[in-house]
Amino acid sequence: MSRTTFSECIAALALVIAASSCTAKVVLRPIVPEQLDVSAEQALALRAQASGVQIYACAAADDSSHFAWMLKGPEADLFDSSGRKIGKHYAGPTWEAFDGSKVGASVKARAESPDGKAIPWLLLAATANAGTGVLAHVASIQRLNTAGGSNPPPQTCDAANVGAERRVPYTATYYFYSANP
Question: Are 53 and 69 in contact (CB under 8 A)?
Answer without folding.
Answer: no
